[in-house]
Amino acid sequence: MSDKAKYPRRLIEVDLPIKRISAQATREKSIRHGHISTLHIWWARRPLAACRAVLCAALWPDPADPLCPEEFREAARNLMKKWAKDHLALLTGDSYRDFVGYQKKPDRLDDNKELRKALLHFIADFSNWNKSTDQNFLNTSRELTQSAHEALGGIKGTKPLVVDPFAGGGAMPLEALRVGADAFASDLNPVAVLLNKVVLEYIPKYGQTLANEVRKWGEWIKKEAEKELAEFYPKDSNGANPIAYLWARTVVCEGPGCGAEVPLMSSLWIAKRSSNSVALKIIPNFEKKRVDFEIFYDAKSKDVKDGTVKRGSATCPVCGYTTPVASVRKQLKLRNGGAKDARLFCVVTTKPGQQGRFYRLPTEKDIIAITNAENELNKRKKAWSEDLSFLPDESTPSGGGPGAGRGFSLHNYGLYYFKDIFTPRQNLALTIFAKLCKNVSENMDNNLVYVSVLLSCVLSRVQDLNASLSQWANTIQAICGANRAQNRMPMVWDFVEANPIGDAGGNWLGQVDWVIRVIEHINNINIQPGTIQQSAAQEQLLPDDFCESVITDPPYYDAFGYSDLSDFFLVWLKRSLPISITNNFQLTSQGLTPKSLEIILDPIPKIDVSRIQDKQWFEEQMQIALEQIRKILKPDGIGVVVFANKSTSGWEALLEAILQAGLIITASWPIDTERINRQRAQNSAALGSSVHLVFRPRKYPDGTLKTDVIGDWRDILQELPVRIHEWMPHLASEGVVGADAIFACLGPALEIFSRYSRVEKASGEVVTLREYLEHIWAAVSKEALNMIFKDADASGFEEDSRLTAMWLWTLSTGNGKVESNEEEEESEEEESEGSKKKPAGGFTLEYDTARKIAQGLGAHMDKLSSVVEIKGNKARLHSVSERAKFLFGKNDSLAPKQKKKKDKQMDLFKELLADTEEINRDTGDISRPEAGNTVMDRLHQAMLLFGAGRSEALKRFLVEDAVGQDLRFWKLAQAMSALYPSNTDEKRWIDGVMTRKKGLGF
């Protein structure tokens, strides 16, 4: 039995054009028509561009590797030569220029490194959404996949098997099928399994026939639903068609002697566009103890008042009293959230032959229709006799705690059951559409019973746009869904109700069209069906040593409560799907998605979950899942795990599980997949990328686990900085910096450590992963500093300079931006209510991240209180203006404060400087301050002098005190100028100081 398995490296273990792939992945976020994300909401979806590129690079060997089979080299060489000859016009940028060279000199591709380069170019171009259905790209990728499979020992005529045990929305397995592999997808969540069935089985099997049937039966459902619902959504007498209804929950004012009805409205804007600005005016009605409304057009900001609710407290327009948030919650709790008796305040309409949206106040006709709808709902409920309840009385998530449960605040407002999330008319409409979806399966050939599954996806889209958690987006005059693929289900005060039988917005036929586009897109790529199964990742799904690749996107620690989020859709899917489908669902005793084996961190006790899902639970269960992955992988197989959690604890939990499962990490690649302004990206070093960790099973060639390979700690510590030094410049060349670069270094660093079953010190003590990670952070920090200061010796700067530079670098995104503590927009959710304070200025990191950086730099945060503030699990780097009192020795009352208006801030600076420094009676200018103790202190003093407009004092400070004679001063200024965000005072001030350098003779 050989000690080392012999296999060639795959492309993904050597190189990946991450800059170009990232560009396509982020672009894909705005692509809608035909994308699988528009079939049904799923959370934290991976862009298809990234999945496609990663799959190709993982399945194809590196032709420049000495162990690469010659058969693959020859096939790849011929395909790339053919591409240079026949398909050059399909390429762009660097790919096009290089392939022009291959066209002129095909012999260049005889060089295996050039062949590797050509394959990487192909992968980068194939990641483009516009090329994803191009038959030339599809055929070539499939030929390369098949050639690689057979050259690496696969049976001729078979395809490599790609397994995804956390299949989610189906991106990974779909792309595996697209590039010519077989796919096995599994998930614990029945909603995920249903989506994968649609994408990987039903559409590939029935194709255009399925699209035609969905269109036919979708139109039938619309006609039938209209017969039952038309009276409850009456058209206007002038021919206008209502498309949306704007509502506000209400409370009773608790002001002394008032008792007026207060509509809870976050904003009085209805349409906020330069071409169409419409707003509401609230008119207090003292006699009736309520308010009336008036709609006015061409609204200007100065004419539009604030809403009635702020941070959960409601201000009465009648008496001015503010009912506190606790009372608002209490009142709504008694009325199950208040959707049933909310106040309708505006109706959105369209008019035949006219463009745009029109707005009017509700009429008596509208109110009568709403009342009649509630009566009809009650009538049907009384007549209901089936086993499953007429309305979804399954419990909503309790939430309210840390971890994945923090995003659910519904119980605080009395929304205990899913039926409470909808108004009576919404519940009526959804029950009718659900019944009609179910009826479709009874009126057609059993072979096409899956049409009803696609129609249920349509219902999910309608449901998301038609709940009391849906909102009216006044800037685009459209409906935003209740779930919106976010990681929470927040309470909203004013909401929108769509007209499902209308002609715009959240109507039924519009959603049918979205689903049909997905069917047609997948049909165009001509794939064979995959295999789908509902099961937990901890269960062994396949035989040992069975598959070539496992590529998966597991849960991100505490980021998403997938089961709780998907219950929102499951309760209506159960009422719309045929029994032949729902009978296969594995559900809890409450009829909801399984949670007992869900691998997330969520310490909120749940029904059917016997153990708290804490950090230990996550690590244990993730390790079990990864052990199953290692078992089913062939000895020469390869895997990829995608992870995007920002917390060091989340990363440590995953990495520990990977290593304990017997896997060797061989590479890591950050690919931009997240929006800069996404949730959880604010005020922190959140990843702008999803890091793709590449791994191999630590197996002998016969498939048995290597457990006797011992590593020497001294050798590892010697190799680590060399590996980081080689890797960081490559990342920088691809635009990867900051937190993304730190986590991207984990792959090459952990490859050294994870190749051993354990690592021992000379004493025999076993080295833990946590201890090794500390050394990784130190190596990365030192290497980053060398890059930041370029030719300067970073050790020549004091620890405050080193820490500040590394801190800002960690927060940088690679686009010249730093995520600073900007004031967040207020939301209606639980977390933003009550006494939450506005974030301070400066730059925030998770405390453990800051601690690791400081430790790696030899800096002591406890001794740098003028630079860093630590509160709980956060550490904040002070802004320069906050440091003024330390640098100029004044008390708190005179320290510069952050103000919105620059002139007020400058007055404060002038006051501070005038009070702390002696005025020169001859020149009228102030003398310079006493120079600070460190280079950074002196740089910040110079910046503040410039910001205060004290040019003479700045000149004397730099020249007469010889502060500018210190080369480190200007080197630090240059480095910090590149690190400070472009929209900050720090950036403006430091650049101002640097402009004085040449004029002062330095």
Structural description of this entry:
The chain has 1002 residues and is an alpha+beta fold. Among the domains are: 1-158, no CATH class; 888-1002. The protein is 41% helix and 13% strand. The chain has 29 helices and 26 strands. A 7-stranded mixed beta sheet has the order 17-2-1-18-19-21-20, sandwiched between helices. It has a 4-stranded antiparallel beta sheet with strand order 13-12-3-16, with no helix packed on it. Strands 6-7-8 form a 3-stranded antiparallel beta sheet, with no helix packed on it. α3 (70-86) runs antiparallel to α6. The radius of gyration is 31 Å and the shape is globular. Residues 675-687, 815-839, 891-906 and 915-926 have low confidence and may be disordered.
In short:
With 1002 residues, the chain is α+β, with helices and mostly antiparallel strands.
- Please give the largest β-sheet: 7 strands, mixed
Largest sheet strand order: 17-2-1-18-19-21-20
Backbone structural class:
alpha+beta
Query: How many individual helices?
Result: 29
Shape category: globular
Distance between the termini: 68 Å
How many DSSP E strands?
26
Helical proportion?
Answer: 40-55%
- Global mean pLDDT: 87
Spatial extent as radius of gyration: 31 Å
Q: Low-confidence parts lasting 5 or more residues at pLDDT below 50?
A: 675-687, 815-839, 891-906, 915-926
Strand content: 5-15%
